[in-house]
Amino acid sequence: MRYEPFRLERYFAATEFTTPHLLAVSDCETRSVGDLLALEPDARERLMALGLGYTESEGSEELRIAAAARYGRATVDDVLVHATAVEVIHTTFRALLEPGDRVVVQMPAYQALRSAADVAGAEVVPWWGRPGAGWAPDLDELDGLLAAAPTRMLVMNSPHNPTGWHADEPTLRAILDRAEARGVRVFCDEAYRGTEPGGTPTPSAADLSESALALGLVSKGLGLPGLRTGWLVTRDAEARKRVAGYKDFTSICGSAPSEFLAALALRHADRILGETRRLLDRNLELLTAFMERRQDHFTWTAPAAGPVTFPRLRSPEVWAGAETFCDRARFEAGVLLAPGALFGSPEDLFSSRARAAATSVRIGFGRASFPRALAAFDDWLG
Length: 382
Description:
Layout: H1 7-15, E1 21-22, H2 33-37, H3 43-48, H4 61-68, E2 79-82, H5 85-96, E3 102-107, H6 112-119, E4 123-130, E5 136-137, H7 139-147, E6 151-157, H8 169-181, E7 185-189, H9 205-208, E8 213-217, E9 230-233, H10 237-247, H11 256-267, H12 269-293, E10 298-299, E11 308-309, E12 312-313, H13 322-333, E13 335-336, E14 338-339, H14 352-358, E15 361-364, H15 370-381
């Protein structure tokens, strides 16, 4: 099986646990097992009594009920739990795509969203956001991309990683309508759903479209990446059945303790996400002030939602490119940034938008340590 190395994850494997100040990360402040068990008075006793046998392949009913409650129209039967969120992407694309299918992918992107389609044998076509418009994608361009046959799937991400762009409900409906008119299924990565300012999340793509597929997880807004739990939501029973059948060849089922703790967290998601949003608001104020001071270094559009943003180097040639800039920040100041090339495609070398992404860096501001990391970065810039 051919595959492109997961460049972001290889980058983190070499740097994340040895760099003091993490500005590249995409998750929000992590919670402990004790934090979760304190949410319900008998949670500790129930965890201690939990059996460690196999779990249900669809996910525990307790977890699917808790996950389904986060949606408007999806029911418990529409939720298919996976051991990890990235497994959702892999199993869905392998189950529903055929070699030669055309897949349009919103770019820049978390690499798995395009590479998993490539591994499935699909032709991956980029739908680049516009750097001068906060990386918002162009819906008129989308019409042309979807018109080409045989386009099978549109892959999008909102709130968006790495840019912070967000599709409000009218925009999301317009995207879904365009795709459905062409007979194209939409897969929407909703990892940051619930982090929108104001506390009212945009409806899920799976609520707005019967054929759409939505990815949910506990890693990002809930700050629980150590549980590794994700799920697919779709009201298309046949598609869900096909994905479940493929999952029998990957994880089969999830970890009982992880599913127990994920369900516990989801029952209290409003409280946890409220704490996350307050932290994001505080950190975004610091980041905004930083970007105003550092206009000589960056061009920037503030993120609309989520804990990540994608400022562009104003003069990348001064630093010999964004990757060298990130290397110097890490070696000289102990500050980890993610170079924008990690969110593009090595084959897409001639697109002006791909070049704009390659001169950008991802900054994450979802952790309590963000003020210290930002201060170290600010001091290094001089």
